[in-house]
Amino acid sequence: MFIHKIILSVTVSMVNLCHLADAQHAFLGPDNGKSISIGALVHQDVDEIEGLKMGPFVKLDNGNILSVDGTDCIISSDNGKTWENIRPTDIEASSAPAMLKRLQSGRLVLVWHRRFPEGTSEYPLSGGDRQWSEVAASNHREELSIAFSEDDGYTWSDPRVIAKIDRRRKMGPPLRRISYPYLFEINPGELWITTMQGGLRVKLNEEDFIQ
């Protein structure tokens, strides 16, 4: 369960997406989490959606809230009360959770796992047993990429790999994963990135990726 705090001017300060029965709902905390109420249904039984439950949130320049989770994205135009337009993104991604954040420069930054390791066009599929997932999907977590957007996510820079597991080494999960990334901008343009799985700790400079 992930809780993301968003500084908004009106209703919602925290939003959480999680499973409730066979559907997924938004949970609202207008008082910094002192009280939580269930919000609108996010989605239920959408065939082309692999699941949306761990996504980070950013406020766009037009006032909407965008969440990206693995292969899918969703938008709210009323501070998280309701969510609409849930759909697959055009970004090549595995089903593993991503990190989306607005930097002090105004750019959006995305840290995520691409569908396949760089330079390849295949990866073993997981799931399909109606437990982890209803259909088999890429759960690639051995490589972490980064990209930046200058236009609120409409277009993105070419992805750059920032960390990867040496596949020649014999390791089993979770050591073969660099997943659940978190990004903290400690100073303008200075990005600290960590992962819950794999223990990644890296410092990057935004300017090194901007052409």
TrEMBL record:
InterPro entries: Sialidase, Sialidase_sf
Gene3D superfamilies, per database record: 2.120.10.10
Residues of the Sialidase domain: 76-191
Protein name, UniProt field: BNR repeat-like domain-containing protein
Signal peptide: none
Organism: Cyclobacterium lianum
Superkingdom of the source species: Bacteria
CDD domains according to UniProt: Sialidase_non-viral (cd15482)
Family annotation (Pfam families): BNR_2 (PF13088)
